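pls design
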């Protein structure tokens, strides 16, 4: 209870002090670090300190907030709202690349990155890039056009460049239909993206660390999909016709084989009767006929006595 009263008294003193001096309270979000710059004219906006996440201060200085957590750069047309970029769950539409045959493919991509928040490095980033582009986060930890500009120019452009460089090694069908190929392309990008981002930065300091890059979908343009479906339909028809042909051939071959075996059996049966003639006589007898008709020969021609 005493501890609660002590904090209440301190908080009350800070609030009263802020009112009397014209200062304001600053609270650094737990997921943000703040750069504090002197706010008075006499200080000339000089850098004061880095303020750790979750720290509350009372002053008339200026604070610039930057995220300490991992961020994501996402390409996905289905989740992108160009009229409300900050409110979208994607940062831009799907990433369009060209395959090895010149076909267009739209990739759904996610690149994870983190801003370096070590105090000296973050100060350098702010004074070289963040301050000139208004890229810091507001008191509610929301970003605006400045942060998007930084993402687009340093992160997105590098991912797009590497994706385009490596996509030409694959076919549209592979990217579209084979997850293992998309994983391979993701790995290609991931292995080269850090250098590509660093090359875009002012100076040699690494301001961003790039983590995983994943491609979670791919789709050819509508014309290609239509042609692909037509080819598949033709292929299915051809395969069906070939299957029918082979089935008919197999059936005919089977019928011929049966007939041949039947002929062999009949020949063996006839041979058992002593030959075709004997077999035919047997058939005649079986049907009630007499195959042994009497033979009358030729009647003798009467002689004519000479007169």
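designed seq:
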């Amino acid at each position: 209870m005493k501890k609660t009263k002590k904090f209440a008294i301190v908080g009350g003193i800070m609030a009263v002090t802020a009112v009397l001096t014209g200062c304001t309270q600053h609270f650094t979000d737990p997921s943000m670090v703040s750069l504090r710059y002197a706010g008075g004219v006499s200080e000339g906006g000089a850098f004061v300190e880095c303020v750790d996440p979750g720290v509350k201060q009372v002053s008339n200085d200026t604070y610039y907030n930057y995220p300490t957590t991992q961020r994501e750069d996402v390409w996905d047309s289905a989740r992108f709202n160009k009229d409300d970029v900050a409110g979208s769950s994607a940062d831009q539409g799907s990433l369009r690349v060209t395959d090895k045959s010149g076909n267009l493919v739209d990739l759904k991509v996610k690149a994870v990155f983190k801003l370096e928040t070590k105090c000296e490095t973050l100060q350098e980033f702010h004074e070289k890039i963040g301050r000139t582009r208004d890229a810091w986060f507001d008191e509610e930890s929301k970003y605006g056009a400045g942060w998007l500009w930084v993402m687009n120019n340093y992160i997105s452009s590098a991912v797009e460049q590497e994706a385009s460089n490596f996509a030409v090694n694959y076919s549209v069908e592979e990217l579209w239909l084979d997850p293992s190929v998309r994983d391979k392309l993701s790995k290609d990008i991931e292995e080269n993206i850090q250098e590509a981002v660093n090359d875009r930065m002012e100076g040699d300091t690494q301001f961003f660390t790039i983590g995983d890059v994943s491609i979670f979908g791919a789709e050819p343009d509508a014309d290609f999909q239509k042609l692909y479906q037509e080819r598949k339909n033709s292929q299915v028809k051809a395969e069906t016709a070939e299957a029918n042909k082979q089935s008919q051939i197999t059936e005919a071959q089977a019928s011929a084989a049966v007939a041949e075996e039947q002929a062999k059996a009949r020949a063996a049966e006839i041979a058992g009767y002593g030959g075709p003639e004997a077999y035919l006589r047997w058939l005649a007898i079986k049907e009630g006929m007499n195959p042994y008709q009497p033979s009358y020969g030729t009647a003798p021609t009467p002689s004519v006595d000479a007169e």
